Amino acid sequence: MCRIGAIKSKKYVYPSMALKLMRSQQEGHDDSGFAFVMQDLGGIFESYKDLPCLSMAATVKGTRLAEDILHDIGFTRVLQWSPDVNNQKGLKISPMPNYIFEVLQYPKSHKYATKEEKEELLIDTSLRLRKALEEDNEGFIYSFWPDMLTLKEIGSPKDIGTYFGLWNDKDEPCAKIVTAQCRQNTNYDIVRYAAHPFVLEGYTVLVNGENTFYEKNKQYQQGLYKGYVGFESDSQCFLYTLHYVNKILKWPLRYFMHVINPLSYDSINKREDKNILLRIKASLEHLETNGPNTVLSVTPDGRLLCTCDSKKLRPVVIGRDDNTVIMTSEVAGVNDLLPHRDIRQDIYPKEREMVVVNNDLTVERWQQ
Amino acid sequence: MAAVTVNELHIDDLPWIIEYDESKCIQCGKCVASCAFKAIKPAIEQRKKSGSITEKNKFEKVIVIKQNISFAEHCRGCGMCVRVCPNGAIHVKRNTDDRYSVRYRAAKADSVKKGGRSNLNTEGRTLDKIKVGRISQMTDPSLDAVRHTFELKTPFGRVLSADKLGFEIKNDTIIETKKLPPNNWIYPIIMGDMSIGAVSWRMWEAMAIATAYLNEVMGIPVRMCTGEGGIPSKLLKSKYVKYMILQIASGHFGWNRIIDAMPDMTEDPAGILIKIGQGAKPGDGGMLMANKVAKYIQEIRGVPKADLLSPPTHQGLYSIEESVQKMFLSMNAAFNFKVPVAIKVAASATSVSVYNNLLRDPYNIVGGFFLDGLAAGTGAAHEISLNHTGHPITSKLRDCYLAAIHQGRQGEIPIFAGGGLGQTGSFAADAFKLICLGANGVFSGRLLLEIAGCVGNDTERCNACNTGLCPAGIASQDVCLTKRLDIDKVAQNLVNYFIATDFELRKLMAATGCSALPIGRSDALITVDKNVADRLDIQYVC
Amino acid sequence: MKSITIEGIVNNERISTQDLLQEIQSKIDEGFTDFEIHACGQHDIGGSSWAKDKDETLTFNITNPGQRVGAMARRGTKIFVNGSTPADVGWLNSGAEIVVKGDCGDTAAHCAASGHIYVSGRVGTRSGALMKFDPKFEAPEFWVLKNTGSYSFEFMGGGIAVICGFDCSDIDSVLGKRSCVGMVGGTIYFRGPIKDLADCVEVQDLNQEDISFLENGMDRFLTAIDKRGLKDTLLNINEWRKIVPLPPDKKTERIPVAKFRKENWVEGGIFGDFIEDDYKVYELAATGDGRLQEPQWDKEKCVDCKMCINNCPQNAISDDYSVNPNKCIGCSFCATVCPKHAWSMKDNKKEIS
């Protein structure tokens, strides 16, 4: 069970909004964790949108290890922010010793590097950090990407909120895009990496669903790109497929649907673009995710996406007012945050539908 | 009476013994009349009359049914006599202690030949040791086999990885910029592939009719592989040729007529299958004995009435590079690169190397890999090949699929697996398991024969396809025997079996929550056999 | 009538569904019958709460409920939701009147067995699935002002659904896609376009009984959702049709393959160029041309002992020793019994021509 949510606003919003969004959907998750990703950051991060931001939770040793690696590569710290933790007794949380959110300057060697070269450096560094921390179980690298901040923790979402002081809307952190999920355990293990949202190179994905083709997705993705690692959850496959389709193959977003939930041969055969769609269906057969799923995603350029499987087996609703759009599993969450909205504007995405929220909050609906 | 000596063939040497109950026999003669092998005959026996021993004329003659004891005319256990006997007076009994094959070799200085299947398959079927064990409960919903929709089509033809499709983006839409290898989307079960000649014209036409019916009436896009024995030009010129995969083997039989028909063809065939080898007799070529080379076969194949022994390899193909470049190119060119061309090989310890080589072919013209395992059937073979050569399909298919995964190229050359499928009754179960292990689809020929009424089995019953005396009229060219086969019933039974199989395939997909073919979804499978689990990389359970 | 308001969030802490439902039940036990619930997504509100006195009416006014509003609710329960609700509204409704002034999530009215569910907006995917009708109780009714999501009314077994199709001009099917899969009972009245219906149901025009049901029911429905002004728009009876399950005898039969061969297959058979086949089928012990062997008589050797004639099982040999091919099966008894070998058997092997 899990409940997912995404908020996109014209104004900076705080993680408390995500906590409140998920609070009314509590029966739909198991109160075992809270994770959120913030993109398009505000507050003290606002001036550093082009510099990579590292989100990490680690032991003291792990922190040192990471700092050494970053130093070794040539990154220099521009800004560091650590949450002011509330250690009150009785909170249901298993915290890590250190939480580090820092903005770094690229190494001198990359002063004149292209965007691609910088991105390459970030993924390579993330993987190196992850590997180093994993070896002795010293911590977790959640994200290392410009203008993005990630936190994942095990425990009750309410208490995690209290521990990190997220219920009080302070200056930090805030952002125009917040995605969140309240659940930590997966069908597999309880690992911090296994919590949605999953991020890779500016793409964020949250899934309410099952990927019955997990094994074959995984087998195929492992050879596709070095950044496709972990696979702690069957839902990571959705992230990697979105990344592969949009970033590596450079296909428009709507083809993501044709990869994860391809139409039947008979439906494709009636269409004008059948040649293209049949090729995609055959070539990326191993990226089909068969099973119930609603996928919420954020693209590096800040668009919000929602897609539903072919049978629409998982709930999702999109509600809005003039400044904010919310996508979430159950309407109760939207009712709590936007009680006075016009409910006639609510969107209940259908099977095989993709809804895109653009940066100006206009909405596009696209039927597969 | 002739003198009896030890070295003569004796009834105990034969594989089947006729059990005859004279007291039930009404001497209607039907058993003799029905026996295609002339294995039984009426005979006169001298009997002692009951009554006084002083009486003169104390013998009487009676007619009884007796078994022929000869290499040429011996009982194959087909049981036609049992079927026609009104009183149950005759039965056939397996002689568990026969010495027929030893006697035959000793008498004839020749190898033993037969048709049918391998009969030394004593180790049991791996597929039956595998269960579909990942049933959807709670986490994802099971589906309803009757009411939900399922995608049961699979690509046939060379599939390129997404980055090699040459797609470009224009107005936020993908457009094609280069010609791509042909792909046809077909049902994952192929009927195949038995030649005209190996089977009778009625059997072959019944399969073709069933294929057409399944496609046109039922919407089940089954394809039929023709085998290599020529193809009637009336079929080539009809719209139904689009459901046919034309085969070319080492004999190239009938291809001149195919070439001749090409200008008149209104549809492309579904594909071309280059047969290199077959699972039942790997390393052997085709073998059609003269008595099956009927007049129309001589015409369609362009040969005289003689034993047709095709070479085990295509003359002119000396290496895999040549086979790809020459044979695939020629066959692709034949239909202007619009029809997928696949290869069929017998499963072998070397199959993975073959598959790897094909995957790396830079011309991308290999459209399918048909892998045929040792439990497959054949119209005629040397017993030594049939019983002692070959490789089981299951692990070999898996090896090939895992080899593709290793290169990140799974699915690029679709694999179709065959060889003894449906042997234990359910083609759907075998198909589903092999698909989960990595096959895009499966094929079977022998099962179709059983559906048609073949009385043979895997323990030496009948298996006389090579003689041309098939008592069911399936593997014969004799007009009296072939006309025993009811073409409409055979076609109907084939259609019915495929409708049932289609439903059963959906049942397995439904239970595992798959609405599309679970190609390579090995996590759906479990086995209680640790060795099978280790070998196939599936879950061991107990 | 005693009223009480219950809050779903107290001191900034959300009350769990368990605690909230137990609180409601304890208030019912104290004699409260009229509830105002300010929920925060708690499930099952209004449903699983029962008064001691069976005939007592319980009323719930709810804001922001979670899933399964009015689930398993009994007769005498009235539930009013001011706003939209998540999934499973009226799940297993067993007699309550449930009014939703907004949209419902997926599977609204799922398994509803009695009572009335009135929705003033849209309902989600698989709504109306498995509705049923037990003749001991009133049939369940499910009224929706706008439209349903796809896969609506899957496996419906009974009851009545009314989909009014209001404000649906941009929608191509007011029942979504693949509606009524597995439907075996009940009636769905609908107004507006539909498409992609399952093949186990049929669409019919309304009869007089249907029309009076709609006319009477529409009043109740529009009153409940406070939209009486729509009556004239919605009661244009010509715009309505209904869906009922197809009777078993209407299911289509497949054509026999033999008919397909005769009517659709390549004319004259695909081997027609080479061979003439009448497609007749021989018996195993056939007579005439179907015989595997034919007897041949040599007059010179015959001594007219009539052994063959007497022993022929088919009585196929005449007194002049001619053989009637329509009787003879080629059993070779004649050749076996002939003392002078006047009969011999000749293979009847013929190749097709």
What does this structure look like?
The complex is a heterotrimer of chains A (368), B (542) and C (353). By secondary structure, chain A is α+β, with helices and mostly antiparallel strands. Chain A has a single domain (4-367), classed as Glutamine Phosphoribosylpyrophosphate, subunit 1, domain 1 (4-Layer Sandwich). In chain A, 27% of the residues lie in helices and 28% in strands. Chain A has ten helices and 16 strands. Chain A has a six-stranded antiparallel β-sheet with strand order 7-2-8-1-14-13, covered by helices on one side. The longest helix of chain A is centred in the middle third of the chain and has 21 residues, at 115-135. In chain A, 57% of the residues are buried. Chain B is α/β, with parallel strands linked by helices. Chain B has two domains: 11-110, Alpha-Beta Plaits (2-Layer Sandwich); 151-509, TIM Barrel (Alpha-Beta Barrel), CATH 3.20.20. Chain B has helices at residues 30-34, 80-84, 100-108, 201-216, 233-236, 255-261, 295-301, 320-334, 351-359, 383-388, 393-406, 427-436, 446-452, 479-482, 487-511, 530-536; strands spanning 16-20, 40-48, 59-67, 90-94, 113-117, 130-132, 154-156, 168-170, 173-175, 184-186, 189-191, 223-225, 244-248, 271-275, 287-288, 308-309, 341-346, 369-372, 377-382, 415-418, 441-444, 525-527, 539-540. In chain B, the strands form eight sheets. Chain B has an eight-stranded parallel β-barrel, surrounded by five helices. In chain B, strands 6-22-23 form a three-stranded mixed β-sheet, covered by helices on one side. A two-stranded antiparallel sheet of chain B has the order 1-4. Chain B is globular. Chain C is α/β, with parallel strands linked by helices and 353 residues long. In chain C, 14% of the residues lie in helices and 20% in strands. The longest helix of chain C has 17 residues, at 208-224. The radius of gyration of chain C is 38 Å and the shape is elongated. Chains B and C meet through helix 1, strand 2, helix 2, helix 4 and helix 5 of B and helix 4 and helix 6 of C.
SSE arrangement:
The complex is a heterotrimer of chains A (368), B (542) and C (353).
Chain A: E1 4-13, H1 15-23, E2 33-41, E3 52-58, H2 60-73, E4 76-81, E5 98-105, H3 115-135, E6 139-146, E7 148-154, H4 157-163, E8 175-181, E9 198-200, E10 203-209, H5 214-221, H6 236-248, H7 255-260, H8 265-269, H9 274-283, E11 293-298, E12 304-308, E13 317-320, E14 324-328, H10 331-337, E15 353-357, E16 363-367
Antiparallel strand pairs in A: 1-8, 1-14, 2-7, 2-8, 3-5, 3-6, 4-5, 9-10, 10-11, 11-12, 12-15, 13-14, 15-16
Helix pairs in contact in A: 1-10, 2-3
Chain B: E1 16-20, H1 30-34, E2 40-48, E3 59-67, H2 80-84, E4 90-94, H3 100-108, E5 113-117, E6 130-132, E7 154-156, E8 168-170, E9 173-175, E10 184-186, E11 189-191, H4 201-216, E12 223-225, H5 233-236, E13 244-248, H6 255-261, E14 271-275, E15 287-288, H7 295-301, E16 308-309, H8 320-334, E17 341-346, H9 351-359, E18 369-372, E19 377-382, H10 383-388, H11 393-406, E20 415-418, H12 427-436, E21 441-444, H13 446-452, H14 479-482, H15 487-511, E22 525-527, H16 530-536, E23 539-540
Parallel strand pairs in B: 11-12, 11-21, 12-13, 13-14, 14-17, 17-18, 18-20, 20-21, 22-23
Antiparallel strand pairs in B: 1-4, 2-3, 5-19, 6-22, 7-10, 8-9, 15-16
Helix pairs in contact in B: 4-15, 9-11, 12-15
Chain C: E1 3-7, E2 9-10, E3 13-14, H1 17-29, E4 34-38, E5 58-63, E6 77-81, E7 94-100, E8 114-119, E9 141-144, E10 160-163, E11 187-191, E12 201-204, H2 208-224, H3 231-234, E13 240-245, H4 257-263, E14 293-297, H5 307-311, H6 333-337, E15 343-347
Parallel strand pairs in C: 1-4, 4-5, 5-6, 6-7, 7-8, 8-9, 9-10, 10-11
Antiparallel strand pairs in C: 2-3, 11-13, 12-13, 14-15
